[in-house]
């Protein structure tokens, strides 16, 4: 299950630029377009307890408790729910020149803005990347109070850090190769015996990922994830959603991921944007950090406890915008679908590899075999 | 949602004996018949970490970490998986005479055994109760070490106390009335607007229940439940089951119950006997403790987070034995089925009462509406 | 260490009344006199997050999250910090007649008030008990919302239940004998080989205690204790006190008690009243529940981790009032002092009995042997 | 309290080499000399539950649950308790040449060993650094199973990662300047108004530290720290030590550090080597990560809850060996002592700066002012 190999390669490869990629520190923030700013603000501020750094009639800038930069999430009022930017922080202003060169060599559209694209951020570079995603890079940012010690402000479910993004793209090996060129490293992936790659997790900071590539029609945004300190904080968010009669915001979990070993909960915001709450993956910074490859038919890969993944989790994701603010057209996945091979009509999974499909929980056959029934 | 009323009464009532019932302290142990003693021992001892007080070729006597009586669970080798006894401890030996009189007046078969029916227990009374369940009462018991302070023996998922039984019976109001005559008090129940009662929770000790009556074909045993100290211990049991590639033992949860407010996990043992792990309900000892009545269509009644109940949880339960050790014949439920009214073809549930079925999580429609598909 | 014996008897015994004692359910609330109502309200409401049921210019009525009666704590403005009542709930109104008879036979002053002594409570009986404590008994009470399911209102350190009182009295065996006459049972105590009893824990509800008797000059109130759901909630209270720069409110802990096996934290309110936060003791309702007797020289009896008890914890306690509202005069303890025999100049303790004083942590000698230095 | 400045500079500076320092990934393991290998093995394996990778008559090689390299701790039998190596992993074998050049330019003794100094490690470089510490650098290492998913092996207090070292050295600014030359960055420090630096925390990996420099007679090893997943795991270690009647191994805590914001516990192993258990500090990888400077008189800097630091914690530390295996001679600290300025006869601390010494907890005056009494 463990090795040092990246996912199988695609036949449809993005060329490696001759210039070095920018030195990326970490995923830093996401810009979400929401259709009802007040309603979304209520969800992120009053339900999920993110901290408002700044707001106006058009946008709300939010951060987590341990963050010292201006924001980890921007909610911007718009007509159609979408993602306007996946933003990464780089090590220095000079790295932005590298970003420009890197993407220009790839033939991508590149926009530079000295004053930044959002409040609190300085000189920034936005690109439409080869997969169609709106990526942003910046270094200059307004510092704000790191609230780590402000235990008078913590709530039972406080979010402390932006942890990662998750992107939907049709050709995962193609995406991985491009991201490795951009300086990311694979930590875990899901494959099958025939060599199809279904998803891959990639990091810059020494956690399991800064972003993951999930196979599906894309480009789309699968989720944005925030970290908590302990597992009980994730349970507290569920309890609070129940008390607010908002339990229908819970799409999947809570549970333990197989991939990443983290404890998770997947929510849907008022526009359907998926937000993951996440805690306790592991250190990955050594160059020879063992890559973990999961068999797509291993029923514990997505949920270590074998609880079924709901179909919407596989099929629904957020539109991403191009640099003009219009939806980027989708490209369909042609490789096998993880949902179809595991829970579809011809799908199969196992709890114990040696027993195959017979080792699937009998009490959940209905849920796992939904494909038969839809 | 809160009042002081018991469930609606049945038309088919068991008469109230003229004698006082025995003064019952608490549910004390269950005797399970298992078909492969070694396999079941492995599950309860090596997976769930119950403590072996004593064992021989035919039976294993197990207790939880804070228990000081000989056992909370007996595994006895037999040909057919079943439940041989639901055993309660009474306040004194004299209470056993009251038990005899109480059940004799009800016309029930009563067996007295000076040396007890299981090791470690003294003079005991077993009855086939009016609902068909094999109930036992005892006072004399061998004391063993309470391991509460033995933190060198605790494991990440240690079970500290037997918490409750859960019984399946066709006519819940009938069962409740009889149990109230036996000295139990209702703490919570599930009803609908038409007056059907689907389940009721009843206590002697000051927790939410010592046993619950769940509507269905009966008599059958729905589950036996052990308590942990904190929620993370229940998550640790799930994690361990994953590591042992036994995640298919997880039938439902973990989650937060609406009823009882406790955090729970439902497992199936190697014979399919259901074992619940449970923590953090509330104090109920005041005579005017508010009874909580849940609407059967409230999607948060069984799981506060709105996660669906798998059909097997409603339909499967363990056979119970009569005093000769033979399976007790089933009586079918004629009242509405909770599964049918909530997830069946004509079923409906809500997250927010004012929005009705529209407030159900769209991403889980498939799971909730399985009735359409089976 | 475990047996079924009560503490050694005193030579100075309060006679057992010929009438039966009232059937007490549980400790229900304490009435505290505070010298600055606004300041105390801030501590209990904004720091400890108790819920205000009702308040006026003279008093604040507070309850915990799982309570359904009007209050668990009354803060009443007064000139001198003190305790006006230790209040217990009885099983029915009729039990109040028993209380009157019980205390009248003991020659105690008894006050009856149909409308109750505090808001929200009906007919009540207050007595000056034989030890000098102002005890109250009531049944009628205004019901309020049990907030158990209101997870939108929980905070990281929410208190869910009043757990127990702790009283200081000079002659512990005398106090225990009287409390046993009142229907309480001893669950644990601290003794020495010579037969001196230093403290005893006594229950009505099936936890380790509803009140404890701590040896010292009395009558005084040692502490009032509230329960949380899990240990991390107690740590969250510490963290919050740090963030508020109120860490000097922490007198002792957090830690694990030896006695009771509970996790604890002892705070001092703005008037110096001691408030304990407490979680996870064990079930004690069986009549033959093993009594645990601890050796006074066992260094883990008060703190299972061997952390030293600060001298103030032994020496400071709150004044109690007589039924006229005046301080009750103190009687000095003549038996040995727990502090002197353990940390005083001639004191000794052990971590491992077989090694005696040599098994005390070398790094804490200074703290343990403060008696040499004061 | 927050800025971007390093500690004040020393007048006694180690020159900055002209060559680049090795690219260090993280603290990787410590080699401890212990006087009774069986006794130390019992402490680390049976009490702290570290995993034995390999062992022989002379040494035991231990790792934590999430580690994939051969070991995080070596226990080696010897005549005098000491520390033989603080070992760091570098990014590639080539970095070892940089290490050699770096230290040779500093005039330090450098030892290269192709086969490594301990089992499981390949080509390694050991140096006697300018402060007198035996530092090791390596890249090649035997991979072993990362047990992160092996929840069947976890115990209530499982250690998952080596987190940091802590070193005692007389001149903290001198040490910091040298460590910055070696590529470390300061994240937090303790200073006073007069410009004395008492301690500094420095990182390579993006946590608060890989090592800290604590002012005192040195070179000595203050502690080695392992991380757990959650705070309850640290409490479980305390509980287990109590059950094993080894509570005297607890020197300080558990508590919340002010510096680092982590939850901690400090133990002493059978030879007196200090082992810290640690969880939940924060992400520090951004180049402009705010440095937190604490006032030495802030009573919450070392323990956020204001609990006193025992004198032994300031005064006792482990001997370190030179490359010949002999104790390195101590150099005395000439700057002010943190213990003296805070708890000594003329010391002072505050809970609230504006109130000064008056804001210290009255109930702990004895403990804080031990200096008066010793």
UniProtKB/TrEMBL annotation, chains A, B, C, D:
Q: Where is this region: Disordered?
A: 344-374
Q: Which InterPro entries match?
A: DHPA_dOase_Mn/Fe, Glyas_Bleomycin-R_OHBP_Dase, Glyas_Fos-R_dOase_dom, GlyoxalaseI/FosfomycinResist, HPCD_C_sf, VOC_core
| Protein's name according to its UniProt entry | 3,4-dihydroxyphenylacetate 2,3-dioxygenase
Biased composition of type Basic and acidic residues is found at 364-374
Signal sequence, start to end? none
Listed PANTHER family:
GLYOXALASE FAMILY PROTEIN, GLYOXALASE-LIKE DOMAIN-CONTAINING PROTEIN
Keywords of this entry: Dioxygenase, Oxidoreductase
User: By its UniProt entry, which Gene3D superfamilies does this protein fall under?
Assistant: 2,3-Dihydroxybiphenyl 1,2-Dioxygenase, domain 1, homoprotocatechuate 2,3-dioxygenase domains
Against PROSITE patterns, the record matches this protein to:
VOC (PS51819)
Residue ranges annotated for the VOC domain, each copy included: 26-140, 161-280
Q: Recite the lineage of the species.
A: Bacteria, Bacillati, Actinomycetota, Actinomycetes, Micrococcales
Q: Top enzyme class of this protein?
A: oxidoreductase
What Enzyme Commission number(s) appear in the record? 1.13.11.15
């Amino acid at each position: 299950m463990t090795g040092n190999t990246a996912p199988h390669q695609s036949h449809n490869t993005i060329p490696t630029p001759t210039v070095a990629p920018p030195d990326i520190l970490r995923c830093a923030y996401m810009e979400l377009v929401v259709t009802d700013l007040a309603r979304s603000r209520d969800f992120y501020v009053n339900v999920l307890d993110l901290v408002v750094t700044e707001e106006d009639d058009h946008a709300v800038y939010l951060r987590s408790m341990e963050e010292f930069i201006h924001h980890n999430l921007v909610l911007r009022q718009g007509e159609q729910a979408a993602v306007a930017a996946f933003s990464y922080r780089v090590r220095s202003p000079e790295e932005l020149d590298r970003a420009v060169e890197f993407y220009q060599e790839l033939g991508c559209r590149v926009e530079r803005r000295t004053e930044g694209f959002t409040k609190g951020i300085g000189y920034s570079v936005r690109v439409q990347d080869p997969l169609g995603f709106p990526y942003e890079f910046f270094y200059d940012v307004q510092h704000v109070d790191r609230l780590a010690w402000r235990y008078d402000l913590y709530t039972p479910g406080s979010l402390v850090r932006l942890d990662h993004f998750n992107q939907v793209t049709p050709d995962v090996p193609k995406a991985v190769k491009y991201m490795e060129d951009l300086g990311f490293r694979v930590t875990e992936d899901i494959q099958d015996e025939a060599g199809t790659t279904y998803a891959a997790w990639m990091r810059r900071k020494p956690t399991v990922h800064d972003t993951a590539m999930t196979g599906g029609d894309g480009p789309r945004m699968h989720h944005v994830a925030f970290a908590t300190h302990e597992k009980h904080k994730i349970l507290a968010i569920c309890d609070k959603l129940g008390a607010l009669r908002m339990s229908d915001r819970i799409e999947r979990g809570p549970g333990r991921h197989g991939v990443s070993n983290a404890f998770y909960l997947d929510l849907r915001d008022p526009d359907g944007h998926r937000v993951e709450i996440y805690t306790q993956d592991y250190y990955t910074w050594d160059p020879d950090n063992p890559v973990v490859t999961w068999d797509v038919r291993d029923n514990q890969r997505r949920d270590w406890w074998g609880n079924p993944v709901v179909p919407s989790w596989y099929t629904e994701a957020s539109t991403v915008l191009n640099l003009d603010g219009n939806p980027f057209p989708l490209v369909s996945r042609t490789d096998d679908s993880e949902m179809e091979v595991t829970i579809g009509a011809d799908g199969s999974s196992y709890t114990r590899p040696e027993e195959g499909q017979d080792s699937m929980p009998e009490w959940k056959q209905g849920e796992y075999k939904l494909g038969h029934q839809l």
